[in-house]
Amino acid sequence: MTSGLRLSRIALVPAAVCLALLQPVTAAVADGPDEEGAGAKKAAPPMSIEISDGVDKAAGGDRLAYRIIVHNQGGEALDNLRVEQRVPATAGRPEASEGGQVGKDGVITWTADVKAGTKAEFTARIELGKTDKKALRAASTACAFLDGAKAPTVCASDLDTLPGGAAGPEGATAEKKNEGIGTAGLAIGGAAVAGIAALSFVAVRRRRANAS
């Protein structure tokens, strides 16, 4: 997970930034009023989330094992915390551990109580289906929701480079150029050989004429 193309990192920024590739979200705050007024929002507790499948590159048919870690960095327990993972678009039906439930849309959902200062871990496996040649990366995003909240508090993403992304536009252009040069080289080489043979033939004819 150290490649420059991957975004597997501990997410301490608002969820709207982390979910930019997949869905728009509102500000990362808990739903419901606080003690100061009915219209105010309660600040989100200090927490982080990370997701990783342990690889930097993937291709159709690969089995990917994701590991999600939620860290409660606050002094109070996070009760009934909901964790959701959205798997890559071409993935087959996911397999979830730790009691994870797979929805019809392929989203995996876990619910857990995370004590203060502790971490909770969740795992899932998917098989990546056939990917389009133009697809650059396979993305999976994990988000944590406070009890009953509609908007996530924190999110993190994992990106695996696909064969199309590994080649990239520059790589494809270079490959075409190499192919063109190779073909032209064969043509030029053939013409050169033919020219040398013709000159040799003329030289032999002149030698024979002079000798006679």
Tally of alpha and pi helices: 2
Radius of gyration: 30 Å
Q: What is the first-to-last residue Cα distance? A: 81 Å
Tertiary shape = elongated
Helix content: 25-40%
Oligomeric grouping of the chains: single chain
Q: Report the order of strands and helices.
A: HEEEEEEEEEH
Detail the poorly predicted runs.
Answer: 1-36, 170-202
Layout of SSEs?
Layout: H1 15-18, E1 47-52, E2 63-72, E3 78-86, E4 95-96, E5 101-102, E6 108-114, E7 119-127, E8 137-145, E9 154-161, H2 163-211
Features:
2 helices, alpha+beta, four-stranded antiparallel β-sheet, 25% helix, five-stranded antiparallel β-sheet, disordered N terminus, 212 residues
Structure description:
The protein has 212 residues and is of the alpha+beta class. Helix content is 25%, strand content 29%. It contains two helices and nine strands. The chain starts with 14 loop residues before the first helix and ends with a helix.
Compose a concise summary of this entry.
With 212 residues, this protein is of the alpha+beta class. It is built from 2 helices and 9 strands; from the N terminus they run αβββββββββα.
